[in-house]
Amino acid sequence: MTASEWDACSDPAPMLEYLRGKASDRELRLFAVECCRRVWLLLSDEWIQGIEVAEHFACEWATEEELSRTLAELTYNFREIIESDNGAAKQAVLAALHPGSPYDPRDAASAASRSEGCREDEDGARLAEQHWQADLVRAWFGDQFRPVAG
Length: 150
Hints:
Layout: H1 3-8, H2 12-19, H3 25-37, H4 45-58, H5 64-74, H6 78-83, H7 87-97, H8 106-113, H9 125-141
Helix pairs in contact: 2-9, 3-4, 3-7, 3-8, 4-5, 4-7, 7-8, 8-9
């Protein structure tokens, strides 16, 4: 990716791919949490708590055990959850909670953009969400092509 591609990009996926190995797990998880916050009005309290646990883990206020326990509780009946109302929003939360390595926030961003509030047939809402996410990547991770003053 070049500086001009970074500046013009309206899809977070290639931007996040470019950041692979450059951004910390903490930064990427917090980006995923922010994507989830955009859809949390579609979620019940237990799912909102899942977003909060993911954020707390990123800030070192929650342990990996708490993260794993929350993920296990939310995925107890995975198929029913994903097929339920707001399944994409729930998938975004599960991606933000996922403790795996390497952590990939593209799953959370993609699921958030597919949620009920961002259907493609509703005046480009999905594209608008992707543009918002791309702007968030630029704001969160800065200009990746400017040398860091040291």
